[in-house]
Amino acid sequence: MSAGRFQGGGLRAYTLFYLLFLYAPILLLPLFAFNSGTIIAFPLKGFTTDWFVQMWGNATLRRALTNSLTIAMSASVLATCFGIFAARASTRFEFPGKTGIMGFIMLPMVLPEIIVAMSLLVVLLGVGAELSILTVIIGHTLICMPYGIAILSTAFASLDRSLEEAAYDLGETKWSAFRLITLPLVMPGIISSLLISFTISLDEFIIAFFLAGNEPTLPTYIFSQLRFPKQIPMIMALGTVLVALSIILLAIGEYFRRRGIARIGGKDSGGFL
To answer: What is the pTM for the complete model shown?
Structure first.
């Protein structure tokens, strides 16, 4: 066997092991979510949908889910809007201190979240703010914005500036050119920013734990229920629903990505799917 074939076989084996390690726990979620047994172990006992019914009938869980969805949607919209301004400025204009300013904006991406959460808690309590869903939205917007900027900066940087210049030559104002030309062309980046920010916010635990006060969020609720073994099957059902939701969001993001590439006549080099 040649060295090249051996290396190729080793790479395929590594890839298979990596994918198995990554996705096997996720594949186990629906197995135990539809299992009638209360113990998470093999062999399975039987098929049931009782855990999904119990999940839907749990008022505290519904409240936590509502809070998390409200926070995630608000934080993703705010982070994306701020990200559009920052990405537009960083890719189109030169101004004093540009590198340092963008570095500070992107800093939450690399800082430990527990440090960010503690700092936000001290600042918010210092100004007399009451811990609530609003404070979590502020924290999640801060965390999600660097990811949105990273995505949107790529979208703005790859945009052909001659299209904007042509719009100016045809009599469009800067605002109308941005609204009619630039914004539709970077829409795949905007959709991607919304989706990644929504996912990060929905999954985020540390900042929600510090800043939510008495309001439960989905991650904090799940963490609190892990102490009760009888609640684990319901958590498995909830995890199954969240995985299905993630797949739907991934499919939507891929649809808009391919649509955006087709709109500008680009070549698809592979994306999410």
So the answer is: 0.80
